[in-house]
């Protein structure tokens, strides 16, 4: 397996060779027409990009030469110099030398010396004549010149999406073939099916790998955002970015762009204090905001962390009661995590006034919905007076999801593992009824439990009050977790855990919120995928 450094080196090489080939073409066009502004502008842009990329990779000699060349092209572009006379051979030599240096990187060889060339470029900047060697017959050195093609191919995202959909179909058929071959029991067929399974797995992960991009491609857009928002809010903010090389599916990054923007604006507008407030609180005048990414098992964690005022849990508790989201006597019993969960309710805002940044009723619920659509989670941790951290827990890919399969009324269903807390089997004595709701004690927490059959088939009215007598024998329960709330779903029996390819529901079933999609099992059976956020909201709306 390639190291991350080797992958970056190959990408640099491919892009640098493209830059070199484009430079060679544009400088030839500029020689034919010294006033060709499009070619001149493109040469300046290519040199600037090569300089930045080379320095980022540690190839400082290439970066230095590109910097000198960029300076000359800038002077020509501003009409301070013309592309005539001795300027022409020096710049041609510069581009040829850049090509040699790029090839040296690829071959892991020593770089050519460029002191004389850099001196000549400096002379051109100062308006002096360069020292040119007497031209030699270099015919032999020139048709031996190698023509090289870049190893980098740019592919439209929609083509990768189509390829991933085809792989998804292949994965489904792979499971069906494996199941049938095991049932038939033919050794040759089973061997072929096993080989097909391995190839399908490799193809799946290769396509998924091709869709990965570094989160830095999104993070890099935030220094300007932070600067603009901080200026509008009259705050002094330092931004730190960590883990920019962590890779994630490009489509996931696209979907969370607005969410991350909202969280950053929220951190500056709500979280960080003004310099005067920070000094009065014994803090440095400058606030600190950190954007970070890291991997955790199969997930990518993206965090927005500030060292601001933190979330006042008691203020949120009062606001939730004022908004009618919870009764005052119930609110008083909620722990800090449960109270902070109200921040994700639609329209919930703690802003004291409406500004360009906050208080417009578009709150964290929008962020939560976007993360939910990916099968992810949004967590919040906060210490009053010290700061707040929002964590986006995201899958690396949305094409294939881990799921728990179970049966209900002899039908197969799936629940994404992202929202599955645990599975338990309990006896009747493990349950109590409080306020018409069935409860069980798990890990020092009273968890409401409901029959999934009753929840799905009860109609539009509220659920009838639970009675303990209805719980007979062992109960298989899936504990799901959403927005810091746990809910137990009673099912007929657990089946197994497996990766599934989730397809969107077709009309008119796509209007049913309780199902997030559909998948096909290896047996060819259709399996509905439950939407845990929708189920949780339904239970809260229908509970007695």
Automatic annotation (TrEMBL):
It catalyses: ATP + protein L-histidine = ADP + protein N-phospho-L-histidine. Coiled coil: none annotated. Keywords: ATP-binding, Chemotaxis, Kinase, Nucleotide-binding, Phosphoprotein, Transferase, Two-component regulatory system. GO terms for cellular component: cytoplasm. It comes from the Bacteria. Residues 1-105 form the HPt domain. Residues 400-541 form the CheW-like domain. SUPFAM superfamilies: ATPase domain of HSP90 chaperone/DNA topoisomerase II/histidine kinase, CheW-like, Histidine-containing phosphotransfer domain, HPT domain, Homodimeric domain of signal transducing histidine kinase. Its EC number is 2.7.13.3. The keyword Calcium does not apply. The keyword Nucleotide-binding applies. Pfam families: CheW, H-kinase_dim, HATPase_c, Hpt. It is an enzyme of class 2 (transferase). Residues 193-398 form the Histidine kinase domain. GO terms for molecular function: ATP binding; phosphorelay sensor kinase activity. Involved in the transmission of sensory signals from the chemoreceptors to the flagellar motors. CheA is autophosphorylated; it can transfer its phosphate group to either CheB or CheY. This is Chemotaxis protein CheA. It comes from Hymenobacter metallilatus.
């Amino acid at each position: 397996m390639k190291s991350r450094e080797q992958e970056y080196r190959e990408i640099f090489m491919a892009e640098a060779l493209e830059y070199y080939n484009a430079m060679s073409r544009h400088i030839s066009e500029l020689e034919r027409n010294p006033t060709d502004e499009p070619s001149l502008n493109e040469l300046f842009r290519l040199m600037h990009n090569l300089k930045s990329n080379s320095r980022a990779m540690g190839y400082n000699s290439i970066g230095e030469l590109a910097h000198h060349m960029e300076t000359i092209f800038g002077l020509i572009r501003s009409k301070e110099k013309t592309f005539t006379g001795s300027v022409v051979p020096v710049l041609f030599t510069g581009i040829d030398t850049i090509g040699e240096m790029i090839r040296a990187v690829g071959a892991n060889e020593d770089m050519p010396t460029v002191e004389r060339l850099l001196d000549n470029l400096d002379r051109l900047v100062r308006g002096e004549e360069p020292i040119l060697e007497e031209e030699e017959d270099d015919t032999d050195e020139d048709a031996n010149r190698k023509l090289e093609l870049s190893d980098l191919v740019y592919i439209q995202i929609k083509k990768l999406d189509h390829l991933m959909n085809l792989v998804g179909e292949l994965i489904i058929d792979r499971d069906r073939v494996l199941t049938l071959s095991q049932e038939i029991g033919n050794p040759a067929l089973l061997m072929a099916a096993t080989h097909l399974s391995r190839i399908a797995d490799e193809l799946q992960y290769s396509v998924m790998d091709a869709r990965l991009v570094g989160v830095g491609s999104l993070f890099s857009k935030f220094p300007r955002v932070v600067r603009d928002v901080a200026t509008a809010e009259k705050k002094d903010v330092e931004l730190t970015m960590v883990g920019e090389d962590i890779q994630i599916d490009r489509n996931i990054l696209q979907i969370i762009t607005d969410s991350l923007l909202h969280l950053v604006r929220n951190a500056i507008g709500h979280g960080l204090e003004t310099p005067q407030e920070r000094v009065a609180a014994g803090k440095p005048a400058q606030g600190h905001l950190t954007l970070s990414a890291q991997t955790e098992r199969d997930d990518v964690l993206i965090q927005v962390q500030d060292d601001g005022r933190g979330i006042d849990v008691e203020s949120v508790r009062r606001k939730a009661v004022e908004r009618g989201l919870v009764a005052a006597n119930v609110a008083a019993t909620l722990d800090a995590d449960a109270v902070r969960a109200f921040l994700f309710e639609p329209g919930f805002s703690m802003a004291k006034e409406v500004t360009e940044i906050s208080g417009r009723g578009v709150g964290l619920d929008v962020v939560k919905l976007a993360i939910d659509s990916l099968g992810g989670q949004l967590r919040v941790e906060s210490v009053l007076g010290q700061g707040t951290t929002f964590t986006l827990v995201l899958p690396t890919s949305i094409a294939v999801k881990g799921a728990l399969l179970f049966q209900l009324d002899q039908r197969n269903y799936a629940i994404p593992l992202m929202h599955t807390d645990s599975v338990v089997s309990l006896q009747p004595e493990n349950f109590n009824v409080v306020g018409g709701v069935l409860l069980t004690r798990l890990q020092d927490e009273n968890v409401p439990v409901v029959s999934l059959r009753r929840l799905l088939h009860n109609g539009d009215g509220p659920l009838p009050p639970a009675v303990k007598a209805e719980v007979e024998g062992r109960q298989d329960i899936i504990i799901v977790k959403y927005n810091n709330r746990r809910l137990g779903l009673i099912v007929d029996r657990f089946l197994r855990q497996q990766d599934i390819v989730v397809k969107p529901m077709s009309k008119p079933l796509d209007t049913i919120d309780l199902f997030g999609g559909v998948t096909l099992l290896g047996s060819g059976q259709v399996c509905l995928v439950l939407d845990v956020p929708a189920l949780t909201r339904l239970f809260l709306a229908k509970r007695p």
